[in-house]
Amino acid sequence: MTLADFPRRPGAVGVHSVERFVFSVPDLAEARRFYTAFGLDVREVDGHLDLYTFGHPHCWASIHASGVPKRLEYVSFGVHADELPVLRERIERRGLACEPHRLARPGGLWLRNPDGTPLQLIESPKVSPAAKCRPSEREPVAPGQGAAPVRSKVRPVRPRALSHVLFFTPDVPRMIEFCSEVLGLRLSDRSGDIIAFMHGAHGSDHHLVAFAKSHGPGLHHSSWDVGSIDEVGAGAEQMRIAGFDQGWGVGRHVLGSNYFHYVRDPWGSFAEYSFDIDFVPHDLEWPAADHPPEDSLYVWGPPVPPDFVTNHEQAAATP
After folding, report:
1. Start and end of every VOC domain (predicted)?
2. CA atoms of 152 and 144, how far apart (whole Å)
């Protein structure tokens, strides 16, 4: 697709996609086993792992070995080339520029967010959706036949694309302000200073990124689009069989409306199967609201695990 194939909000300047998120883990073999079981196309490149979805050419994430606990290294956002000068001016005016991360590919603009996490703004094709994602096509069921497949013939669940990433932050309102004023993201919904969801001005899912309050920064979960609620449930079973039976779901969120199942990874964060998330077109003013906590997490599903919003990446300060 060319730049002209994607609608854009007139006069808006801002990132259009999560181009890549990059983190490090103690052992790449564990990471390979987890994400392969999850249904991603895991490729080893120059001593690290790149995460793809089958049938899509884009690399969504990179994982490096560190020998120490998991750590979010940096986040790369995709931007349109003609918007780079305005973004550069925003960065320079606020004194946010930083050196490129040692693990990063060359190019783009570099800055730090208020939590100190390095960000790369790089010219790249828009990989966030331009319209609401469609359900997977299903073969018609003949009269007299059951619609469910037999268990032995269930197809492996393979996510179609990265939907969004949720990060920890010690200051949610500060992050909303930064993302709005510097990155050009727009607030979708929030719940006080507990959690916030932000979408791209040029059209994206209900959230490209989200932020949950914690004692420090970090990666809470990556969310991956699948084609049906049945695939959400089948993904949960797929991971249980592979030995990854801890998580949360199946359920349905309120903010974003997607059906979900979260699988806990070996490092205490999560990967989410997501289906039917709300979409915010480039020409729509989403009615952002501040929701009470009881109306901000889920409509139905099992109880939230006690450690679901625990940041294992940063040690909490002791009194």
Report:
1. 14-124, 161-276
2. 20
33 Cα distance to chain centroid: 20
Instruction: Give tens-digit pLDDT for 169-201.
Output: 999 999 999 999 999 999 999 999 999 999 999
pTM score of the predicted model: 0.94
Question: Measured between alpha carbons, how far is 262 from 42 in angstroms, rounded to an integer?
Answer: 19
Q: What's the rounded mean pLDDT across residues 247-269?
A: 97
Note whether residue 152 is domain-resident.
no
Measure the CA–CA gap between 264 and 247, rounded to whole angstroms: 5
Cis peptide bond upstream of 250, omega within 30 = yes
pLDDT-derived band at 137, boundaries 50, 70, 90:
confident
Q: How many domains, the chain?
A: 1
- Lateral strand order in the sheet of 270-275: 186-191, 195-199, 209-213, 161-169, 218-225, 270-275, 259-264, 247-253, 298-300
Mean residue pLDDT across the chain: 94
Domain that holds residue 258: 8-128+159-300
Within a domain: 236 = yes
CATH number at residue 224: 3.10.180.10
d(CA 120, CA 156): 34
